[in-house]
Amino acid sequence: MNKKMKSAVVYQIYPKSFCSHRGQATGDLLGVVDKLDYLAWLGVDYLWLTPFYRSPQNDNGYDVSDYYAIDPAYGTMADFELLLSRARERGMGVMLDIVVNHSSTAHAWFRQALQGRDNPYRDFYIWRDQPNNWQSKFGGSAWEYEPVSGQYYLHLFDKTQADLNWENPGVRQAVFDMMRFWAEKGVAGFRLDVINLISKDPAFSEDDSDGRHFYTDGPRVHEYLQQMHREVFEGRELMTVGEMSSTSLDHCIGYSHPERHELSMTFSFHHLKVDYPQGQKWCAAEFDFIELKRIMSEWQTGMHAGGGWNALFWCNHDQPRVVSRFGHDGQFRTESAKMLASTLHGLQGTPYIYQGEEIGMANPGFADIAEYRDVETQNAYRQLLSEGVSRQDAMAAIRQKSRDNGRTPMQWDRSAYAGFSSVAPWIGLGQDAARVNVAAALDDPQSVLHHYRQLIALRKRYPVFADGDYRCLTPRDNALWAYLRTTEDERLLVISHFRAEPGHFTPPPGLLEPGWRWQLLLANCPDAAPAPTDMRLPPFASLIYRAERAPD
Ligand code: TEU
């Protein structure tokens, strides 16, 4: 990655819920075009769009049936080309979501594969005469019986998402051809869906858990990514990010170290499991703040030392809203949303902003299971009830954890459908849409939105954001996360208070040694001291200070 890429910020768009240009229940590509001026004003450099390829939409487009076609629900290839050029005119690149751990079972390759064991496409997928004990990430066995051939095919996700067989060189060539097609069109980068799951251990052994030990960061995954780099990325200036499921720090250094020629950076998820007691997602639970700091600090220092690069994120289309999760979506919504933003954007790596996060959108709190659309949520609900969990407890878990928390329509203004569409959207709106929306946020200089805009600008202005090393100053404090980023010439001090009660910050010994000139860059509270000092912190306070070497 060059210097400019290292200071870049990415904005994630879930087109289905972003904006409907045509005034329909689901968003479309022209809806994204309509909002480009807003995104350029915010200052982001890349737009990652989740999949809009042709798809039966069993998993909202992560089940692709044609990698070369735009799903008619989202528009046409001409719409996409318009989006690319209009974004480019505004200095923004478009990143595509590449979903090649699996394809839809409606894909022509799979339909061919069903023709029989001799069909040349049979070996594009993974077939076995007997299933093993591997489990789908969406619940149930990872194997589906196909009665005509009498074999089972592997699906780590929904049964309509059949895993591709990367051992087959023909699969790899077909994937690289497809990626080159989009690169030639002028996309600026790729986000690679669950890319660390593509290499399965060929023994297909029984696992003492759900199978993950035999396909996570599997035996040939680095080889495959290096091949992808040679075949697709080399000679092009592309920003690439891999989504890494249940991965390790060492593997992520491998995936993202520039000299290994794999990817620019990685998403990992350990920090978003701090509200999964004993690893269990589907229960309502408090988050473990100390653990959150520990994990994020470990990835900060580990990736820095190893020469890897983190993708930084609190939210995406699979996660609850961070203000509801680690902040306070009531009285302190604005303060806590800003505090969380500053905490993340002060770290080393590339920050990703998920649509709506920049205005502090909260979980919708749907009361009824019928209001949820997501396949994973629906499966989880059935599973919980079958295990004897009460409806009330099941719904409490779903309200907190469902992926649909992040999928309600983007809130643009206070009109009936929040400016998303002129008809009822495919999923309900957040309850706060009349108050929490882009139009209101633009008008209010104290809004969460203006805070995000300032954070993006600061990253571009001061090299310490991209380059500084990281030290956590408060690993055991129950309320405070303060950290220091340092280069030869600059220091950055981020102080974040994670509680709804007042708190306190005391500078650690040595921090204020002479020779440095401090300034306040950004705060979410009035009357912040101009330089770090012993201070009282209001609820969810957050302050960013910077120092440079004072002239002798
Ligand atoms: O997600 C991968 C994934 O395993 C998780 O984020 C998953 O959704 C979560 O752990 C469930 O609790 C990616 C996409 O982001 C997601 O939307 C797709 O459903 C999934 O891959 C399959 O393509």
Notes on the protein architecture:
- The chain is an alpha/beta fold and 552 residues long.
- Helix content is 28%, strand content 18%.
- It is built from 16 helices and 22 strands.
- The strands form six sheets. An eight-stranded parallel sheet has the order 13-12-11-5-2-1-15-14.
- The mean pLDDT is 97.
Largest sheet, described in full?
A: 8 strands, parallel
Radius of gyration over alpha carbons?
Answer: 23 Å
Give the class from helix and strand content and strand pairing: alpha/beta
Unreliable stretches covering 5 or more consecutive residues: none
What is the secondary structure topology, with strand pairs?
Layout: H1 3-6, E1 10-13, H2 29-34, H3 36-42, E2 46-49, E3 53-54, E4 66-70, H4 77-89, E5 93-98, E6 102-104, H5 108-113, E7 127-128, E8 143-146, E9 151-154, E10 161-163, H6 169-185, E11 189-192, H7 221-233, E12 239-243, H8 249-256, E13 265-267, H9 289-306, E14 311-312, H10 322-325, H11 333-345, E15 350-354, H12 375-386, H13 391-401, H14 438-443, H15 448-461, H16 464-467, E16 469-472, E17 480-486, E18 490-497, E19 503-505, E20 516-523, E21 535-537, E22 542-549
Parallel strand pairs: 1-2, 1-15, 2-5, 5-11, 11-12, 12-13, 14-15
Antiparallel strand pairs: 3-4, 6-10, 7-9, 8-9, 16-17, 17-18, 18-22, 19-21, 20-22
Helix pairs in contact: 6-7, 8-9, 11-15, 12-13
